[in-house]
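Give me the fold.
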Amino acid sequence: MIIHLDLDCFFVSAERTRIPQLKNKPVVVCKSGDNKIFSVEDTESLMTESVGGFNGLMHHKKEFRGFDKNEWKKEFVDDKGRVHGIVIAKSYEAKKHGIKTGTHLRDALFMCPNLLVIPSDHLFYQQLSTKLKAFLMTRIPILEQYSIDEFWGDLRGWVKDEDTYSFMSSLQQEILEKFDLPMSIGASSSKWIAKLATDFNKPYGLTLVKKEEIPRFIHTMPIESFPGIGKALQKRFKNYAIETLGEVLKSKNLVLGWGTIGKQLIARLSGEDNEAVIHQRDRKSIGISRNFHVIHDRDEVMRRAIILSRHLSHTIAKLHLYPTTYYFKIRYENGVKSKVSHTIDRAFSESMYRELTIKTIQELDEYPHYGIHHLSLQVSNFVTPTQTKTFSLLHQEEDEKAKKLNEKLTKLRDKYGVDIVRCGVEKRCQ
């Protein structure tokens, strides 16, 4: 059997491990832009693994000083009394009030006046997730981390099928006792049915679906409940009046005619996909982004872009990555956005990336009269170290020098922090 493990309301549950008075209360964990990164003062940040949409690679340390129900106002209420921030996790008690992930904090407070608000602490969540993963690796022979709070485990050849449920129950209880974290677990013959089983029975559920039980299990489930059926596929199904997963299987011949997507979906729904639990995934891309209050001063925008490029450069160096595609995005105050990507045949270095960032942001800023509230930088299409030898001969000598400098910078930052060496322009404005 393959099992899927999903921590219930992980960010909220994590906070409850150190703030017991949050238990059984309507709680939200909220996020605003982490703008400590733009401070002219040195700040301490640590690199973590990238394991989830709300969890980046670089986070600033937060000192936990206990719980004050009004502490959140320092981060989410500005000097004009306006509430900022969005909900990135909610307790089941808060969910009953209609609060969802992505709800604006000001709206959440209106929906639930006695709501308890916790500023996010991603470094703490990452550290807790890492500890849990280390524990799970002692219990499950092949483990795949899908996100910061989700895992798959392959029990085949390790736990007999008939013993799977008791194994799940024992593991669930052990995690609760050891970490004080509630976890739901699903099991089936395939990865995606196992995940569906977990989602079906939350919180703190245990669900085992045998292969022969799959058609009956999914029969009445809405199509949007299945992982991978996004809005585009939902629309296509509804054009054919198909609204449940059971109806998808009944329309097998139709769906198979949709090519690779259709074949993959039918295989996953029937438990015939044979997709392996992957112990370690190859990294496809990494990036860094920040939201902030609207800025009109382009010198300040550029200063922040340079800072983001420095942080991402350090991460790239630490992970020994060699990107060839560079993505940039600007969001303006009126909802307009500008984005572009460049594929460059050069060895990566911090200086090269900084120059590219400056040049690209200047060219990308098509609306100089609009204020900017978001910057995003991303790199992808990684090559191997041996492939870097094929990079442009024109810049070979320059890039080799920059590479050696990068290595020295990385050692310095590992010892003294990512802010120990900064570009001069970073301290000019704020």
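The domain at 285-427 is CATH 3.30.1490.100 (Dna Ligase; domain 1).
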